[in-house]
Amino acid sequence: MKKKILVSLLGLLWMNMVISQTTIWLDDLNIPGFSEGIPSVTVKASSANQPIQLAKQTYERGLGAHSTSVLSFQLNGKATRFSAIVGADDLANPGMITRFYVIGDRKILFESGDMKTGDQPKTVSVNLTGIERLGLLVTNQEEVPRNYSDWADAKITMIGNHVPQNIPNDGEKYILTPASPKAPAIHSPKVFGARPGNPFLFSIVASGNRPMKYAIDHLPKGLSLDAAT
What we know:
33% strand, mainly beta
């Protein structure tokens, strides 16, 4: 009987060793080393260098992104889950539309859809079992000021004592971001300001298969549209 109990205890100990996990908060990592975008990603604050705030709730931990941002991590199949709370920061431009993606090995694991300032944040909980490379992508309109988007309470659960690594910058290039949709879509802001008496130039930002042509109704007097560009 004692032998059976000893074997059972050893079995339980072995199972605990196998499934031991560690929570890695992303704001504890050297985030600039994982960022592939030009705008900086802030830790434990929004890109406005203020506390992260989503729908009037403040978060002490997380990352703040400004404009389009990409974070990439080498996991080597040693992670089990990514979780976060995402949304447009309360200090962001009210006209800004932001979108969050979690990408694992070139597949979209989470997509937030369009989010605006004041929208209820969305909870992200993604299974990372077997994932080699993880990408966190934020997209929004580059022309809109105060492009503040937040990954609040962002963390990765790792197996044992493993930690996320930087993706090597050698060998075959590895694209984390998903391909743009083929259907045309306009991403320019709906409201655009200009001073009276000054030249006016408004660039229409659009994605989709090329070539494409632009058209507009009720263009104000004195303005013209380049249908090709």
